[in-house]
């Protein structure tokens, strides 16, 4: 029984050693889609180095990217009706994301090469490989 447990540990260690580094480093709690308005895209670009530094110093190599102070939604209109709330939830992009270092660098590159700063959606799984 001890031998079987030892062999299982050895083989599981070999299996992990064979995984590519990117598969081991993947952030499973990070956001996989990032959406920008022209204001939040400009804000991200202005603060990209700060986000990158924060992710580099984090042991898990990830950080919160908060774009709320840069033109994101500030709250609700006075006494909105229920229909306007439903519409706002569907059309207003989020302004806070959890991104790893690789995603921050990819988003930075994608925004810098964008032809125009219109509303932009970046799917990190497909656009940042």
TrEMBL record:
This is Uncharacterized protein. Residues 1-25 form the signal peptide. The keyword Signal applies. It comes from Lutimaribacter saemankumensis. Keywords: Signal.
């Amino acid at each position: 029984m001890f031998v079987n447990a030892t062999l299982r540990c050895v083989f599981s260690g070999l299996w992990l050693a064979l995984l590519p580094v990117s598969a081991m480093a993947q952030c499973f709690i990070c956001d996989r889609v990032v959406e920008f308005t022209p204001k939040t895209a400009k804000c991200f670009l202005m603060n990209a180095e700060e986000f990158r530094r924060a992710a580099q110093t984090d042991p898990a190599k990830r950080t919160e990217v908060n774009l709320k102070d840069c033109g994101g939604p500030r709250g609700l209109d006075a006494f909105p009706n229920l229909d306007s709330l439903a519409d706002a939830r569907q059309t207003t992009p989020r302004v806070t994301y959890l991104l790893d270092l690789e995603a921050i660098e990819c988003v930075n590159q994608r925004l810098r090469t964008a032809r125009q700063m219109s509303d932009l959606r970046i799917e990190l799984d497909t656009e940042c490989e």
